[in-house]
Structure formats: C-alpha cells, structure tokens
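Subject: for your reference before the review

Hello V.,

The reviewers asked for a structural picture of the protein, and I figured it would be easier to keep everything in one thread rather than splitting it across files. Below is the amino acid sequence we used in the manuscript, unchanged from the supplementary table.
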Amino acid sequence: MNVAVQLFARARDLVGGSPVELELADGATVADLRTALRERCPTLGDLVPHLHVAVGQDYAADDTAIPAGAEVACFPPVSGG
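And here is what came back from the structure prediction:
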C-alpha cells in the first residue's frame, strides 16, 4: 500500500518537504513505517526512533497496524517552555 506521511517541524526541514510517499506491505505497523522512513529519508537519521507518529487522529504505538488509506503524520519531540 502507498502511504503519504506528513512530516512537521525539524523532520520536514531535514527531508526538504512533506509529504513523503512510502510503499508499505498490507498489515504494516508503525515500526515498519519507521524502518521504511529511515531507508527512504536517511537525513532523518537518529530522529526516526523519537518521532511521535499519528495514525488518523490518534498517536500510535509501534505495534499499531496502519490501515490502507490512513492519514499518517510524524512529529519530532518538542522541548522548551
């Protein structure tokens, strides 16, 4: 399945734009998405494991399956006050 991943903040800057198109197997999980994202966008490097991933309207754990047609977004961790 083809998944368009919206990237935000530093992640979008490192890649040079958003969305990023990924080809994932049916039944792929967020962990599979992280692997594909790292392979497709090596400039993200060590940021990939720290990205918050939302599938639809909810943040998702690495074992969450990504349904076909789902909206997927990745947000870097935020710090500051």
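For the response letter, the relevant points are probably these. The two ends are 39 Å apart (CA to CA). The chain has one domain: 2-75.

Happy to draft the paragraph if you're swamped.

O.
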